[in-house]
Every structure is written in structure tokens, then in C-alpha cells.
Protein: Shikimate kinase
Organism: Maribacter dokdonensis
Amino acid sequence: MKEVKIVLVGYMGSGKTTVGRIVANHLNVNFLDLDAFIEEGEKMSIASIFKEKGEIYFRKKEIEYLNKVFLKDESFVLSLGGGTPCFGNNMEFINSKTPYSFYLNVGINELEERLVKEKEHRPMISHLADDKLTEFIGMHLFERSFFYNKAHHKIKSNRNTPTEIAEMIVNKLV
Ligand SMILES: Nc1ncnc2c1ncn2[C@@H]1O[C@H](COP(=O)(O)OP(=O)(O)OP(=O)(O)O)[C@@H](O)[C@H]1O
Ligand SMILES: O=C(O)C1=C[C@@H](O)[C@@H](O)[C@H](O)C1
Ligand SMILES: [Mg+2]
């Protein structure tokens, strides 16, 4: 197989990390998660970076680490942070580097069901009451969809399993 760089974008909880691991295993290439790469490099959790250094600092680091990943001369599956496509010219940069950017498009209700159980380590939503989550996700997703839709491929989940979504991605590779 020639070198292939696959990038997964989508809202928090859309399954980028879960699906990305499956795709990488299937293709036998490295799996990278931008959030984890930042945490490793900065030796701090994302939640601590937001709390101690603020979101703007985090967004600058996100751009820096995204550039670092693409210096790697190897195949990989890269799952981005939920906000990565929405800052700087990150989507243009990614699309200039690979034809395989994928938007995992998951509906608001499905996202809410997943995120209500996992708010704590996600600083964008950890402060929200459970009954405010659906409204917030709806607004936020509406704002962000513009950027997510710049991905070369869109994968719509209708309550598909992670394995099914991974298969849809693999089927788009030529
Ligand atoms: N297709 C799916 N069906 C059901 N549950 C899923 C699916 N994909 C992911 N999940 C579950 O949803 C939760 C969020 O998934 P995951 O952490 O992979 O999302 P993410 O897009 O990486 O989120 P973040 O942007 O916050 O890093 C996890 O509990 C995961 O097990
Ligand atoms: O949607 C977002 O803005 C974020 C998503 C996470 O992946 C992390 O990158 C961080 O919590 C910010
Ligand atoms: Mg993730």
C-alpha cells in the first residue's frame, strides 16, 4: 500500500478516536490522536491546559502540533480534536496534505446521549447542566458544520456501529 494519511474530523463525541483506532488497525498503520499528542507533548491534560493557560493558548498549540504530525513521513490515521477544523486555516492545510479528510457527521440526539455520560474531561461542555446540553450542541454544531463540511468526504452515521463507520471510511480509499 502506498502512503496514506487519513484525518477524521467531527464534533466532540462523534467517534473520531473510537473509529480512528479501528481504521488504523484494519490498515495496519499508526493511529494518532491530536488531543493525546498535545497532552503528551505538553505533559498536561487538555482540561488543565484550558484551565491554567486558557483556550487561545490551546488553539495555538493545536495548530503547532497539527503541523508537527504532518512532518511525519509515514501512513497514519489522525483523529483531530473537535475544534481543530474551526481555527486558523487548519482545514485548508489538512486538505492540501491529503485527499482523505473525513467528517463524521452524527446527529444532535446521538451526540447528546454520548456526551451526557462523558462531560467531565471535555472543557467545552463540562460546565453545562445536563438539560442545557442538547441546546448547546445544536448551536455549536450549527456554527462548526461550516468547517467540518470542508472535509473531502462526509460519513453520515444513522446509529451505525463504530465498525460499520470504519468500513464506510475504508471503502472510500482508492
Ligand atoms: N458509532 C458509535 N456508536 C455508539 N457509540 C459510539 C460510537 N462511536 C463512538 N461511540 C462512543 O461515544 C463516545 C465518544 O467517542 P469518541 O471518544 O471516540 O469521540 P471523539 O469524537 O473522539 O470525541 P472528542 O472530540 O471529545 O475527542 C465513546 O464513549 C464511544 O465509545
Ligand atoms: O470541541 C472542542 O473544541 C474540543 C474538543 C476536544 O477534542 C479537545 O480538543 C478540547 O476539549 C476542545
Ligand atoms: Mg477523541
The longest helix spans residues 133-148.
